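pasting for the record
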Amino acid sequence: MGFIGDAGMVKESLYWFDSMKNSYKVAPRCEHYACLIDILGRSGQVETAYKMIQEMPFEADLGVWGALLAGCRFSLNIELAELAAREIMRLDPKNSGAYVMLSNIYAAAGLWRKVSRVRRLMKENEVKKQTAFSWMEIDNTVQYFVGGDVSHIAIDEIHTVIVQLYSQMKVMEYIT
């Protein structure tokens, strides 16, 4: 299996998206478009992804705009990153992810004044960066934990499962 950025994976994704509509008569929803936008963005085709958003038969949701914004990380397309971030902020003004992602894109492009402006805007709009956490299901119970927190009662078991998953992903060539 190739990486998402491979041209073959993009072609295959487009094939299945089209066949979903044409052969199986399944009308794509926002989450289908978001997946395709994500694949196009990861392959550096953010302009194509944006064109697809413009041609969608309904308004793009947070997932679609988030996929485009994430794709802009790979190409450092500042113009589309700003547009996607604005749309996310319009739909969800307190969405800290849009601010952080835009700030990170600016930083990667060396646009430090814009980084400062985004951080200042977060403060002015009282947008707080959400604490990241992970979760996994163990024995039919969902367990939550914050990165770096070793106080969880099952931390040893969690680390064991993570190591096993990582090893399996390497064997299956999902990671190198």
